Amino acid sequence: MLTPPNSPRISLMVARGVPSVLSACTSADSERTREFLARSYFGIVSNNDGEHCGAVVQQGGTRSLLNLFSENTEKGKKYAAHAISKIAIKMNPALAFSGQRAMDACRPCISLIESTNQNTFLVYDGLMGLTNLASVSDSVRERIIREGGCHHIDFQMLEDNEALRRAATQCICNLALSDKFKERYRPEDENSTEPVDRLKAIFVFCGDEEYHTRIAALGAVAYLTSDVRICKCIINIGSFEEIVKETICIEDQGIRHRILVILQNLLASDKDVAEKIINTQIFECLLALQMGIGSQGGVMKDVLNNCMTAAKHWGLIQSNPGEYVYTAPTAQQ
């Protein structure tokens, strides 16, 4: 289902109030009529890079599209779902889908990414729609989880298509704000520190060559490492030290800030986790960064100071004028 070409006729139709007419016809019983209504909505919101999404929302389009998705032909449901995802992409979903409608919009967007034979454009728009919806509230994030969206998002993150991988990773980054979502990244055994496969996957993406995928993965891991159990697992990923050292040396403020937040969370989470980091070259990188920043202020220096404060809290380092020295743990009698 490709976006139709730009048409001045559609702009004229919108100016004459056609979205209001479509909304008034939504109560039609005929499935064929409802399919045409969904197709008409899709044509409007897709025209000219979605410039008419606002007019459709103002004239009751979101309510109508949700109604059309619930009762329609298979083709009509697909048109309605695609139109909903377009609106979620082009507008602030908190405004376009106020209240309960933001949660109701999750199922249509998930339906676009469920089939392995789905058109790539549909899957991409479904993922981007879910990404924006996941930014609205914890209630919306939990609805995506309950509707089974996570499994399909995980699948798309491992696709060969770079755009789909990026969109799926961005969606996971927003979902990682949810405590319920974090549970998926913990091992089932409460005493286990073995990282689960999906935790390994998202961490490996922290070293991805594509910038936006890497930024999203780092953001997701920064959120996930607010959980102590996940911190105890992530430190045991085989490529942990290699990816962190490579990432921390990149001269990009967005990338560097995110990896420092991850290290801050890890160092503050548990003494054993902190000690493993202090015993690697990662700590030397942190010291070099702190000396490089010097007296300069800013968020980066605050995060670095938090890293050192966490290490001192566990008694792993001691501060001397201008430097930090590793303190070997005292042997217990």
What does this structure look like?
It is built from 22 helices and two strands. A two-stranded antiparallel sheet has the order 1-2. The longest helix has 17 residues. The protein has 333 residues and is an all-alpha fold.
Summarize the structure.
The protein is mostly helical.
C-alpha end-to-end distance: 71 Å
Mean pLDDT: 91
Our count of helices gives: 22
Using only C-alpha atoms, the radius of gyration works out to: 24 Å
What is the helical fraction, as a range of percent?
55-70%
Structural class by sheet pairing and helices: mainly alpha
How many beta-strand elements? 2
Low-confidence stretches: 328-333
Name the strands of the widest sheet in spatial order: 1-2
Oligomer: single chain
Tell me about the biggest sheet?
Answer: 2 strands, antiparallel
Instruction: Name the beta content range.
Output: under 5%
* Morphology: elongated
Q: Topology as H/E string?
A: HHHHHHHHHHHHHHHHHHHHHHEE
Layout: helices, strands, pairs:
Blueprint: H1 8-15, H2 18-24, H3 31-46, H4 53-58, H5 61-70, H6 74-90, H7 93-96, H8 100-104, H9 106-111, H10 120-133, H11 138-146, H12 149-157, H13 162-175, H14 179-182, H15 197-204, H16 211-224, H17 228-234, H18 240-248, H19 253-269, H20 271-278, H21 281-293, H22 299-313, E1 317-320, E2 323-326
Antiparallel strand pairs: 1-2
Helix pairs in contact: 3-5, 3-6, 5-6, 6-10, 10-13, 12-13, 13-16, 16-19, 18-21, 19-20, 19-22, 21-22
